[in-house]
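USER:
I wish I could look at a protein chain and see how it folds. I am handing you a single protein, as its sequence and its fold in token form. As I understand it, each token names a local backbone shape. I hope you can help me see how the letters and the tokens relate. The protein I mean follows directly.
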Amino acid sequence: NTNMGWINDGDYAIYFVNSPAAASYTLRASVGSAAENASSIVVKDSAGKELATLKVNPTTGRNDWTVSEAQIALPKGEQKLKFEFVGEDNFLMNVDWFEFTSDGMTIAPAGFKSS
């Protein structure tokens, strides 16, 4: 994964994930935030349905990494997921990586486009 920085409210990234089975996964993200307030990463499917929300609490700096996690149900096959960044402050967070795990198996996003 590629580290993303200087994320603002309204920014988003599109990730492509190939899910080997329909299952509930734990979505984990390594994040750092120098913002004053908590923010979130809202994950939606290609139809715009909200699947999960990761809460991002302020840390001591943008590169002071902590892991946020949430449960997410994915069907089998390739998924196009939109990660929307939401919060009140300028420069909400940096994201070091995302991963999906289920029963000890880890799925890394195949690629991303950010805006």
User: Anything to note?
Assistant: Residues 2 and 96 are 7 Å apart (CA to CA). The chain has a mean pLDDT of 91.
